[in-house]
Amino acid sequence: MHKVTYPNLRFAVVLFSSLLTQAGDVNAEKADQDKPIILEAEKVSVNDVQQIYDLNGQVLLIKGSIVITGEDGHIQVDPEGYESVDVKGTPDAVASFRQRREGLADEFMQGQASQVVYNAKTEILTLTGDAKLKRLLNMQMLDQLRGWKIEYDDVKQYYRVTPPTNAKPDDLPLARAILSPRRKATLEK
pTM of the full predicted structure? Predict the structure, then answer.
């Protein structure tokens, strides 16, 4: 079941989607939580006491099935060991995110935008600036979203697409979604 609401066409287009309700919970791969972080960049600054890492130039972050790329990155690890990642792209090279989902062997969330923010504790992914997000199964697109800002909450299992705050009614539609029927997606397992 997909529900689309337009609370205020002038400033927000919100899209909610109930994901995989017939298939049970399918979240981000839990094994990722226990994997080490692999960081690559042209320049890395490490503050091990405060658990803060700054990366500049061709950033690559790998943690289990999570792969994040961009040009500049900031990572902070909280006292419980959860990472908060903020990676920005450039006008020539966007930031990207990819993660395998728990359950099906070849199901992935894949996105790109000017900025990628991922909170491992809340499992919320935020893509900002010409954002694109896809849910793939066996490299076949199931869901595809486009907009200025996309938030994906893997725990509550919903997408939210919003336009920039200075959007005008004439600019609509500012969000676009292609969502596969859940029954078909779950039957193909």
Answer: 0.78
